[in-house]
Amino acid sequence: VNTPNAAASGPFLVCAAAHTKNGPLAAALGVFTGGGINIPERYLPEDLGIPMFVGRAGINKGLDKNIFTPYNFNQETGRLEGRGKLKYAAYLNGMYTKDSRVGHSTPLNVKYYDKSLMLQSGWNPYIRARDAKSEYSQFGADVAVQIPTIHDSEILLSTEINSAHFSNHAGSLNNLGGVASANLLMDDWVLGLRYAMVNPDSKMAYTEIDDNGVRKSYSITDKSIKEVTVSAVYFLEKYNLKFIADLA
């Protein structure tokens, strides 16, 4: 929703979320504009779709602060709290939205920040299709466990998998991705290893218009993109500092 003078004061976004917790069970359901801070100005005609609905449900046995905040971090030191006990969490989540046509564009098309590969015009050849109202959905699952070990150290293991779907009258895309990590938590150090993978749709491509006005499409990749990252964090609590080093 825009403020009365959008050009002067910028957009004012409205969203809502309901959440509940019963013992280790936790769930949340929210509705959002879906366009982030960048939404089309209020030029007619408006062809409204469906706002972004997001749901998340699962179990949390002491690992997460709440369903909105993965991991129970100390805000001052950046450390995980409540060490010395076995803690775990597992969730299912889903998101769905159908784009709205608002005058010159749509929320998904003009979104400037927090874009996934599905919404990047450099990857998605269909998102800028003329008069397109797109459907965009994502579903995933994640699990994490924190295990006490010897010498007051702990091991934090986590993994997640996500699938995403995008479609409009020009075409459709499907992506699959995931990440797994292992971290050794010690008094002054955290040593980590992370593996991430995304399997882009083979139809993902970069498109451009040449000097003759002909649109050309260049396929990006038909292979999975993989990354392994090692990291080390050192805490200097006397001065409330931490030093982070990583190599991908």
Account of the protein in words:
- By secondary structure, the chain is mainly β.
- Helices cover 3% and strands 51% of the residues.
- It is built from two helices and 14 strands.
- The protein has helices at residues 6-9, 107-110, and strands at 16-22, 25-32, 46-47, 50-61, 87-98, 101-102, 135-148, 154-168, 171-185, 189-199, 205-209, 215-219, 225-236, 241-247.
- Strand 11 (205-209) and strand 12 (215-219) form a beta hairpin.
- It is globular and about 70 Å long.
- The two termini are 40 Å apart.
Offer a few descriptive terms:
248 residues, mainly beta, ten-stranded antiparallel sheet, two-stranded antiparallel ribbon, 2 helices, 14 strands, disordered N terminus
Task: Walk me through the topology.
Blueprint: H1 6-9, E1 16-22, E2 25-32, E3 46-47, E4 50-61, E5 87-98, E6 101-102, H2 107-110, E7 135-148, E8 154-168, E9 171-185, E10 189-199, E11 205-209, E12 215-219, E13 225-236, E14 241-247
Antiparallel strand pairs: 1-2, 2-4, 3-6, 4-5, 5-7, 7-8, 8-9, 9-10, 10-13, 11-12, 13-14
How many angstroms does the end-to-end distance come to?
40 Å
The DSSP helix count reads 2
As laid out across the biggest beta sheet, the strand order is: 1-2-4-5-7-8-9-10-13-14
Structural class: mainly beta
Radius of gyration: 22 Å
The quaternary state of the protein chains shown equals: single chain
Order of helices and strands: HEEEEEEHEEEEEEEE
Total beta-strand segments:
14
Q: Mean of residue pLDDT?
A: 85
Name the poorly predicted regions: 1-10
Describe the global form.
globular
Helicity level, as a percent range? under 10%
Q: Describe the biggest sheet? A: 10 strands, antiparallel
